[in-house]
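Intended use. Records like the one below are meant for learning the mapping from a protein sequence to its folded structure. Do not use them to infer anything beyond what is encoded.
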Amino acid sequence: MKKTSFQVFDAEPASFSGAALVYMLERSTWQDLQGYNPVLAAALRHLSDCGDLFEKDEQMVWLYPALLDWQGEQPYRVKRILLATFTAADAGYDALREKIRLCAGSIAQQLRGNTGIDGGDVLVLCPYKLLLAPDDFVRHLVEGLVLGGYSFQGYKKEEAAEGKKKSGSIRYFLPRGEIAAKELRQDIKQAQIVAQAVCTARDMGNQPANRWTPADFAAYAERIAQDANKKKKFKATIIDQAEMCTLGMEGILAVSRGSALPPTLSIIEYWSGKKYPTVLLVGKGLTFDSGGISAKPPAGMED
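Structure written out for the chain above:
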């Protein structure tokens, strides 16, 4: 998938001249329009009166500054504006975090589907003053933007149309607000690591079984350990079929008899600092469907 990048924006939104400006609007507080450009505020009221915005979560409307009557106001320099809604009222802490992710994911899908934005710069403005701390909001916003922009590209060949450049990555800008720039960059980096890890797992799941075999799985485990082992904190151990027999791992051996390919078991170890607790994560990564139609309700399973 294309890499998504993020930068800190510390100027007035009207000065942004990229491909798109995104406003994330909370449905119960959107009418507090202090600080909004009067023309944009009037547009929001009109959309609300028409019922085209603020009726439900993840409603989205495009505006084009060049088509608006600015009535003497300083026009926005950006090419297009995307309005996106979500609801924070009555949402618990975890639910609100997920709402932010979902809204950001829908925004990323809208942007990805607009060929005029491909490879451009996008400024995302969001209401930090909610139940969440600003840094928490930023992390879940970034996660949603990265995950929503995911697309499996394993077997797709991109061919640029005649006269058009080949598609590129979207570069997101986030306002600093009340967060220190250094802290904001750290929050963004942490969220990107989490989201990219999810996208990597999605890439594995989207591979066909004949192209993601036990050997491929093992080779990937060794590769990420090698790439990350500059500080000697990672170790990958691969248990092959012969060692499984010696260890009496009959569960894996029995299941693998349904395949022509021998099994492997990948163990990845990471050593954190002594001040951190030990955490053991056990994940089941299979390279083919081990459930079987006969073990599940049969209706529709063939498809």
